[in-house]
Amino acid sequence: MPPSEAFIRGIPKAELHLHIEGTLEPEMVFDLARRHGLPLRYPSVAALREAYHFDNLQSFLDVYYAAAAVLRDESDFHALTYAYLERAHADGVVHTEVFFDPQTHTARGVSLEAVIRGIHAALTEGQARLGMTHRLIMCFLRHLSADEAMATLEAALPFKDLIAAVGLDSAEAGNPPSKFAAVFARARSEGLLTVAHAGEEGPPEYISEALDVLQVRRVDHGVRCEEDARLVARLARERVPLTVCPLSNVKLRVFRRMEDHNLKRLLDRGLCVTVNSDDPAYFGGYVAENYLEVSRALGLSRAEVTQLAANSIEASLLPQASKREWQEKIRAFAARAADCRAYAP
Ligand code: HPA
Ligand code: ZN
């Protein structure tokens, strides 16, 4: 049975791969540039949106880092984050784990404290008003040096209680996980959990390195694991979650068309695959749009969409008791939907 749009939007789910800077919509770029008196290279919102055509990861990152320059103070980070939470809530997200890139902002003279406090205040407000729980994940830019990542980690330690994990993003090829072995070891010694982007544009060896050297508890993207059958078997056996981002993968040409995406094959192999939006302002949709497009292109069934939602809770950093509660709610939601069908005229 193919899932309806209402089913996809309604089923409770967690989002686990979301760069808060990637939720910066062109309208907000213009609002913030006006507020701060900053010049923009584009004459209009439409012209900026038009620029969102990418050949690969780097061509996207160039636009993404340039747009982030309009984020100047704590209230900007608060507005950005709260706008995302409202959209995610409308897509059935009950728990979100949000990445942020401190180095993108501190390099422009914005304090780490303003970034963290702005995002965290919005997350706390979202929990009170929308009932969404959250975790915050601080990412290091892998095109910069390990020393710079270490300095960023040290500067963030006073805010450690607000951060659940560290991650690794930006240009993957040529910047293997092992480059950050010491930084991640230090983060773990401070009680922080670890995740990393690997196997998006980089080879399957980077996925193994992320697991063995950085000791990540899940892999962001990870879709290139398919090039190594033994790695796929390991990911399935160990139930290592992959935070897959279908629209991102097509926009950045990891797959040519959504019909070519390997999400269903990986799901069939027993991997803990999840669906996420990555940088939704740039890639054409928030999380429900990712579920919808990948479901349509690959012909996913309602049972498979239910499995993806269940995987997102399993792969989250929530405590076991909350995971059990959400798994029960997902089961009940799917059963109710099946009953409605059965009794429809
Ligand atoms: N890959 C690497 N770095 C990123 C991405 C991504 O998909 N999005 C934002 N930073
Ligand atoms: Zn990402």
Give the name of the CATH architecture. Alpha-Beta Barrel
Based on CA inertia axes, which overall geometry fits? globular
| Number of E-type strands | 9
Series of H and E elements: HEHHHHEHHEHEHEEHEHEHHEHHHH
| Largest pleated sheet | 5 strands, parallel
Bound molecules: hypoxanthine, zinc ion
3D structure, described in words:
The protein has 345 residues and is α/β, with parallel strands linked by helices. Helix content is 52%, strand content 12%. The chain has 17 helices and nine strands. Helix 5 (74-90) packs parallel to helix 7 and helix 16 (302-314) packs antiparallel against helix 17. Hypoxanthine is lined by residues 19, 22, 57, 169-170, 197, 200, 248, 278-279.
Topology:
Blueprint: H1 5-10, E1 13-19, H2 26-36, H3 45-50, H4 57-67, H5 74-90, E2 93-100, H6 102-106, H7 112-130, E3 133-141, H8 146-156, E4 165-169, H9 181-189, E5 193-194, E6 196-198, H10 204-212, E7 219-221, H11 229-237, E8 242-244, H12 246-251, H13 263-268, E9 273-275, H14 280-283, H15 287-298, H16 302-314, H17 320-343
Parallel strand pairs: 1-2, 2-3, 3-4, 4-5, 6-7, 7-8, 8-9
Helix pairs in contact: 5-7, 8-9, 16-17
